[in-house]
Write a structure and sequence with these properties.
Layout: E1 3-5, E2 8-9, H1 17-23, H2 26-36, E3 40-41, E4 47-49, E5 54-58, E6 67-70, E7 77-83, E8 89-94, H3 99-114, E9 122-128, H4 136-149, E10 155-162, E11 167-170, E12 173-176, E13 181-184, E14 190-194, H5 202-206, E15 217-218, E16 220-221, E17 226-229, H6 240-245, H7 248-254, H8 266-279, H9 283-286, E18 294-298, E19 304-307
Parallel strand pairs: 1-10, 3-14, 4-6, 5-15, 9-10
Antiparallel strand pairs: 1-2, 5-8, 6-13, 7-8, 7-9, 11-12, 13-14, 16-17, 17-18, 18-19
Helix pairs in contact: 3-4, 7-8
GO molecular function: protein-N-terminal asparagine amidohydrolase activity
Protein name: Protein N-terminal asparagine amidohydrolase-like
Organism: Lingula anatina (Brachiopod)
Length: 309
C-alpha cells in the first residue's frame, strides 16, 4: 500500500522536499509546537539509546525499556514507527546507508510485536536534517519517504519535522532544530531530548561509520530484554595511525557531513572511535570471541551490565 497522509494515499514521492511540503502544508502547522518545546534530559533508567546506523524496538509490556531515543542528528534522520493498537514501537537513526532494508525491518519488527493483539494502525514520525549546503538532508528525507512508500502495509505519516521544517537560521548559519528525539513506548509521546548516558561500547559501535560497513543493526532482543552488539568486522583502515596524530579540527572538517552544526563533543567521540579501531582492527578476533555478540542487561538503576548470551 502507498504511504498515507491525512487518510489519502501518496501517489508518488516528489523530486524535492519543498514540493512535498507545498502539497502537504499541514505538516508546517503541526511542527510549530514541537519545534518550540524545551529539550528534556532523559535519564538512564528505562532508556534504550540508539546510535547512528542502529535501530531497536519494543512494546509497552517490556518492564525494562520504556523510552527509545537518539541524538547527535544533523543531516541524519530519526524515524519512529509505532502500532497504535499494541503500542509496539521501533526507533532508527538513519544516515543514508541501508535505508530501504532497515525501514522494511523496522516495520516488520513492529508488526511482529503486534501480532495477535488488538487492532490499530502503523504510524510514523520523522525528525532530522536541515537545509545543508550539500543537500544531504533533503536526499535522505526523500529516500526515507520512498522506502516507507514501498511498504506492503498501510503506513500513516503523522510527523515530518525534516529538512526544511527542521531548519532554523542563527547567525547567518542554518541549524537543525531537533538534534535528539525520544519516544515514550507506553504512551507514544515523542519529544525533543538529550541523553547524558548513551549506553555501553559506544566507540566500538561507532566504528562501523568509518570503516566501510553500511548496515543498520537491530540492537535489542525484547524477548530476552538484552542489548545486543555485533558481531561485525571492520574493513581495512591503513592510515589509522596518521589520523590519530591529526588535530581535532581535521575531524570536524573532514569526517562530518555538517562541520558547523556538530555538537561540541564530536571531535572527542571521533578520537575515541579511532583509538578503538586501532586497538581492535579485527573485532571478530579480539572483541566478538568465537563470533559471539556482546550482550548487556539493564539494571534497575539504569546501568548496563555485561552478561553471557
Amino acid at each position: 500500500m502507498p504511504l498515507l497522509i491525512k487518510g489519502g494515499a501518496l501517489k508518488r514521492v516528489p523530486s524535492c522536499v519543498r514540493d512535498f511540503f507545498n502539497k502537504y502544508n499541514h505538516f508546517k502547522d503541526e511542527v510549530v509546537s514541537k519545534r518550540s518545546q524545551p529539550v528534556s534530559k532523559v535519564g538512564a533508567q528505562g532508556l534504550l539509546y540508539v546510535l547512528q546506523r542502529e535501530y531497536a524496538g519494543t512494546a509497552p509490556e517490556d518492564d525494562v525499556i520504556s523510552v527509545l531515543g537518539s541524538e547527535d542528528a544533523t543531516t541524519c534522520h530519526i524515524v519512529i514507527i509505532r502500532h497504535t493498537g499494541s503500542g509496539a514501537t521501533s526507533l532508527g537513526h538513519f544516515d543514508g546507508c541501508d535505508t530501504e532494508r532497515a525501514v522494511r525491518d523496522m516495520v516488520k519488527l513492529v508488526t511482529n510485536l503486534s501480532e495477535g493483539k488488538k487492532s490499530g494502525r502503523i504510524e510514523v514520525h520523522m525528525y532530522g536534517g536541515f537545509i545543508d549546503d550539500r543537500n544531504t538532508s533533503a536526499e535522505l528525507s526523500l529516500s526515507l519517504l520512498d522506502a516507507l512508500h514501498k511498504q506492503p502495509e498501510d503506513i500513516h505519516l503523522m510527523t515530518a519535522c525534516i529538512t526544511d521544517l527542521n531548519d532554523e537560521v542563527r547567525g547567518g548559519i542554518h541549524w537543525p532544530v531537533f538534534y535528539g528525539v525520544a519516544v515514550n513506548v507506553k504512551t507514544g509521546e515523542t519529544f525533543k531530548a538529550s541523553f547524558p548516558d548513551k549506553g555501553p561500547d559506544i566507540p566500538l559501535r561507532a566504528g562501523t561509520h568509518f570503516t566501510g560497513m553500511e548496515e543498520m543493526m537491530n540492537m535489542y532482543d525484547m524477548e530476552r530484554k538484552l542489548l545486543k552488539i555485533g558481531p561485525f568486522s571492520y574493513g581495512p583502515f591503513p592510515y589509522i595511525d596518521r589520523l590519530l596524530l591529526l588535530p581535532d579540527e581535521y575531524y570536524r572538517m573532514h569526517l562530518s557531513t555538517s562541520p558547523a552544526q556538530e555538537p561540541s563533543g564530536f571531535e572527542a567521540d571521533v578520537r575515541k572511535t579511532l583509538e578503538q579501531i586501532k586497538n581492535h582492527p579485527d573485532p571478530m578476533k579480539t572483541v566478538f570471541i568465537d563470533g559471539k555478540p556482546r550482550f548487556y542487561k539493564k539494571e534497575k538503576d539504569g546501568n548496563w551490565v555485561r552478561v553471557d548470551g
